[in-house]
Design brief:
Layout lengths: L5 E5 L7 H11 L3 E5 L6 E4 L6 E7 L6 H17 L7 E8 L10 H16 L9 E4 L5 H14 L12 H11 L7 H10 L3 H8 L2 H11 L1 H15 L9 H18 L20 H9 L2 H9 L5 E5 L4 E5 L2 H9 L4 E2 L1 H11 L4 H8 L8 H9 L5 H22 L5 E4 H18 L8 H12 L1 H6 L3 H4 L1 H19 L8 H12 L4 H9 L1 H7 L1 H13 L2 H14 L1 E3 L5 E4 H7 L1 H14 L5 E4 L3 E3 L3 E3 L4 E3 L2 H4 L3 H4 L16 H4 L19 E2 L2 E2 L3 H18 E5 L26 E6 L8 E4 L13
Parallel strand pairs: 1-2, 4-5, 5-6, 8-16, 12-21
Antiparallel strand pairs: 1-3, 3-4, 7-8, 9-13, 10-20, 11-12, 13-16, 14-15, 17-18, 19-20
Helix pairs in contact: 5-6, 7-8, 8-9, 16-23, 17-18, 17-33, 18-26, 19-22, 22-24, 26-29, 26-33
The structure holds protoporphyrin IX containing FE (HEM).
Pfam families: p450 (PF00067)
InterPro entries: CYP450_monoxygenase_sec-met, Cyt_P450, Cyt_P450_E_grp-IV, Cyt_P450_sf
Organism: Talaromyces rugulosus (Penicillium rugulosum)
């Protein structure tokens, strides 16, 4: 039995006012004090006469004030989680002190209130609710209280804070508190769990009139709406079942795997703080499966008090950054924090290439780079200069007949998203693949969108032909069609882009079959972002009457030419050079609508910002929702929609006190087209296509949503190749040609050398 008596305290305690009253107490008791950099707990007591150590976090009433409660809860959860695999005879507790400062003046009532408030706070948490609280009235009683607690522990047995298994109630809590409206409080959850014995029963009730009425009777309309919306949006997948079999399969698989792996994982105190979810262990994995990539941005926003957090997804840890300066640090460490493993990952999981081809793609070429990298770099020049002009000409020639057909009758109802998707798919792929474009076949076009829309289960790669059937079938059909295209020599009469993507791997010895597989994933670049971006740009302009009129007028005055034969001609170069409001609005919509989260893989252990340790094998994410909308970059209007934001190059900076305050072209500013060194090479092509489509459509037609309300439709979390929130459902509008332009002939023109847009990039 040890008789040595000492306390290890965290350096971070020195910065808290409570330390000035607590340290004299320890010194007076003649206890050895050791300082530690570990900050997941504040104190570690090694008291005499017991072979026990006790780790504690120190909570005072100021930690329970409104502004600090969430931080305190997160800290307690992190403390409980990080220390969950404790060594024998090491215990955890919260030491609750009466006051940061005036200990001696505080009285009983206040103390009781604080204690109740702390209990209520940690009671909310699955992970922290098991932590014992050691109250201490006066500084001089801290040691005695801790000693008493340790005596009780030594007498044992005493239950450790444990992680209860996910129960229906905890899942239910997750469902309703993570749902869109976040209405229900704890007692609502209890009522729900009393009314419905299982989630299945609740899901059935939420979608039937009788069941809904029952919820309304007990909890009111708002909550019933909220639950119904949640089920419709997130749980009722196409099959109509609450949890489809794919999810059940994944969750079951993850559960088994998780139980094995979880016990072995550790979290270093220098890694970014580990934040937990209300569902223990699996919460973040479930959250990311349900919400897709935006989940990480939501977590960064929720824990915005930390510049970087860690989320444990069981098989991998995700480090999520919300600070522009840490993002810069990631960019400066591009070797240790690299994008390359994702290219390999996508070739393996998305394209389904065999290991031998992946090895070839990874092999070093004469350029000194990998074949992967040669293919990527080979694309950039084909999307600039003359090759870009040629692609634009072809793309815009194809787009116009679609717009002509748009309002062919006096009043028509169409699914706007489907219309944009079809038009952009054909115009983009035709300009890339030429006359023998395989996407001209509607079945092949649909195959790609099946592949795209169900991508997340496909890349999970668990019997993909079974668990991700639509995506797997779609990819196989598309790859077959592309192989056929190469066999017939379609690429010989195509764009520089398609030729380069064929020639470079072919010269390196890759088979036609595998080039076709690789090419099937090219449409993620070509289409996955352009289609939803075009939809949201149209939606966000047309739903704002005043802005719509201003843009129409700008385009009419500066980019519309009426030729001698009466043709109404829109020149893409004029849109670029003489329609600043349109260009600025376009970028503002991309800024606001993107869910991008540039990703890097930790290839070797590294410190970022001299502060956080990132461990090899994990993943870094930099969500635009937390980094790209900071007030120190965008000024006080960072959260607003400001159509003119990109017209003014200095205004935001004048509000901005930080250095480098030139204009929005700053790292951590505009992230929609990527952040250096991974910047989208297709951004000019996409911009020309979207702006041409929007300018002509807005000028020629009036659009009104069916039902009269511009309400953003639901988005598809499974389409994870896209950072522009593609839709999960149709969006129906009534289309009417505008009187002023009805019956006119329309066309586009492209001016050589003017296809490159002066866009902001990160
Ligand atoms: C509005 C439309 C588009 C948006 C918002 C967009 C966005 C992006 C972003 C954010 C990245 C970086 C990926 C990352 O950091 O994870 C990227 C990369 C890429 N994009 Fe785009 N993109 C668009 C259209 C296009 C088009 C039309 C093409 C092809 C013609 C294209 C081809 C690519 C390629 C090949 C890469 C990979 C670059 C590399 O790994 O170095 N994109 N895009």
């Amino acid at each position: 039995m040890s008789t040595q008596q000492y306390i290890v305290f965290s350096s971070s305690l020195r910065h808290r006012s409570v330390w000035s009253v607590l340290s004299p107490v320890f010194e007076a008791a003649d206890i050895t004090l050791e300082e530690s950099l570990v900050n997941t707990h504040d104190l570690e007591f090694h008291l005499p006469d017991q072979d026990i150590s006790l780790r504690a976090i120190l909570v005072t009433p100021s930690c329970l004030e409104d502004a600090s409660r969430q931080v305190t809860l997160t800290r307690a959860e992190q403390f409980a989680t990080v220390n969950s695999s404790r060594v024998k005879n090491s215990h955890l507790a919260i030491v609750f002190l009466l006051s940061d400062k005036a200990f001696q003046t505080a009285r009983g009532r206040y103390r009781a209130d604080g204690l109740v408030s702390l209990q209520a706070l940690i009671f909310q948490s699955q992970s922290a609710s098991g932590l014992p609280i050691i109250p201490a009235a006066e500084p001089s009683t801290v040691l005695a209280s801790v000693q008493e607690h340790c005596n009780a522990l030594a007498r044992g047995p005493i239950s450790h804070p444990s992680f209860p298994p996910p129960s229906p109630l905890s899942l239910l809590e997750y469902v309703v508190t993570s749902g869109p409206s976040q209405l229900p409080a704890k007692h609502n959850l209890n009522v729900l769990s009393d009314l419905f014995p299982s989630l299945r029963a609740l899901s059935r009730a939420a979608t039937t009139p009788d069941g809904r009425q029952l919820i309304v009777d007990y909890l009111g309309e708002d909550l019933a709406d909220s639950i119904q919306a949640f089920w419709e949006q997130e749980w009722n997948l196409e099959s109509g079942t609450m949890l489809n079999y794919i999810h059940i399969f994944f969750l079951g698989f993850a559960a088994v795997l998780g139980l094995v792996v979880y016990r072995r994982r550790s979290h270093d105190a220098q890694e970014p703080p580990l934040v937990t979810s209300s569902i223990p262990i699996f919460g973040h994995l479930i959250g990311s499966l349900w919400y897709g990539i935006p989940y990480f941005g939501k977590q960064a926003e929720k824990y915005s008090m930390y510049p970087m957090i860690s989320l444990d997804l069981i098989v991998v840890k995700i480090y999520v950054i919300s600070s522009p300066s840490l993002m810069r640090s990631v960019q400066q460490n591009s070797k240790a924090l690299s994008f390359d493993p994702f290219i390999e990952f996508s070739a393996r999981r998305m394209a389904g290439l065999p290991a031998s081809t992946i090895d070839l793609l990874k092999s070093k070429q004469a350029s000194g780079n990998s074949l992967f990298s040669d293919i990527l770099h080979g694309m950039s020049p084909t999307l600039l200069g003359e090759p870009l002009d040629r692609m634009n000409e072809r793309m815009i020639r194809l787009l116009r007949p679609f717009i002509d057909g748009f309002g062919s009758s006096t009043s028509e109802t169409i699914d706007l998203y489907e219309w944009i998707r079809h038009a952009v798919t054909l115009a983009s792929t035709d300009s890339s693949y030429g006359d023998m474009n395989p996407y001209k076949d509607r079945k092949i076009e649909d195959s790609f969108w099946d592949f795209e829309s169900y991508l997340s289960p496909l890349i999970a790669n668990v019997l993909p032909w079974l668990t991700a059937r639509p995506a797997w079938k779609g990819r196989e059909k598309l790859a077959n069609a592309l192989e056929d295209y190469y066999h017939k020599g379609g690429h010989e009469n195509s764009s520089e882009l398609t030729l380069a993507r064929f020639k470079i791997p072919r010269d390196a010895g890759i088979t036609l079959r595998d080039i076709a597989r690789l090419e099937a994933t090219m449409a993620f670049g070509l289409l996955s972002n352009t289609v939803p971006a075009a939809f949201w740009v149209l939606f966000d302009i047309i739903s704002r009457d005043k802005l719509l009129e201003e843009i129409r007028e700008e385009v009419r005055q500066n980019a519309l030419h009426i030729l001698e034969d009466g043709t109404h001609m829109i020149d893409l170069a004029d849109l670029r050079d003489d329609c600043p409001l349109l260009i600025s609005t376009f970028q503002e919509i991309l800024r606001k609508r993107t869910s991008t989260s540039p990703t890097r893989f930790v290839t070797k252990e590294v410190m970022v910002g001299d502060r956080y340790l990132l461990k090899e094998g994990n993943v870094v994410m930099m969500p635009a929702i937390s980094i790209g909308r900071k007030p120190d970059v965008w000024g006080s209007t960072h959260d607003d929609f400001d159509a003119r934001r990109f017209m003014k190059t200095t205004t935001t900076a004048s509000e901005n006190q930080t250095e480098g305050k030139k204009d929005p072209r700053r790292v951590g500013g505009f992230m929609t087209f990527g952040v250096s060194p991974v910047i989208c090479p297709g951004r000019h092509f996409a911009s020309g296509e979207i702006l041409g489509l929007i300018a002509m459509t807005a000028l020629r037609f009036n659009l009104l949503p069916v039902g009269g309300i511009w309400k953003g439709p639901k988005t598809n979390a499974m389409a994870i190749a896209s950072i522009m929130n593609p839709l999960k459902e149709p969006f129906h509008v009534n289309v009417r040609p505008r009187k002023a332009f009805e019956g006119k002939r329309w066309d586009f023109s492209v001016t050589e050398g003017k296809s490159k847009y002066p866009l902001v990039i990160g």
